[in-house]
Write a structure and sequence with these properties.
The chain is α+β, with helices and mostly antiparallel strands. Helices cover about 30% and strands about 25% of the residues. The protein has a nine-stranded antiparallel beta sheet. Helix 2 crosses helix 3. The protein starts with about 25 loop residues before the first strand and ends with a helix. The relative contact order is 0.18.
Length: about 210
Amino acid sequence: HDHEHEYEEEEFTANDIEDRPLSDFAGSWMSLQPMMEAGELDAFCEHKADEDDTATTEDYRARYAAGWMCDATNITVTDTTITFEFADGTTCEAEYAPAGYSIKFDEHGDISSVRYQFETDSDTAPRYVQFNDHGHEPAAAEHFHVYFGNEGFEEMMNSATNPYFAPASFDVEEVLEMLMGHNHEHHHDEEEEHRDLAKRLLDAFKQQIAF
């Protein structure tokens, strides 16, 4: 199973892909792996399990907790720098320059992801970094999957994990809204409207009986 999302909303070819600056990924970001491992995102796993009769909520939690595994817990990106914060409390920062992109294809030969690449000559930070936010042209990232190391971009294309990073300011509910692709408040409002309508219909029915 490839944890990278497929491009379902828009069809494009390699000729449509544009270079992007590091500033597209600027912001403070957190790994979702700790939330997933702690069971805080079980509503998302339950949602996935409801659509899949071959796996349970626990199966999905274990799958994503492993798939989103990452040495870094937080990443801060500016127009020119990337700062990594690790679980052991250590940090490292370096300036990064754009290094193009790599395209990943699925088994049908269609584009499944575009990874934007940045590199540094620093000896104290990961030399190679790739971001995938499911985009293929300049735009501010809303979340991203990240890959980093010192072995080279080609080596990272075969990564067994797909770390997921969301805005560090998000709470659990905001993360769930992002993952599930809907607004909880909107659905709450719809439920209130449905209850009000049901009550009005019931009242009207009672009045007809009384008449």
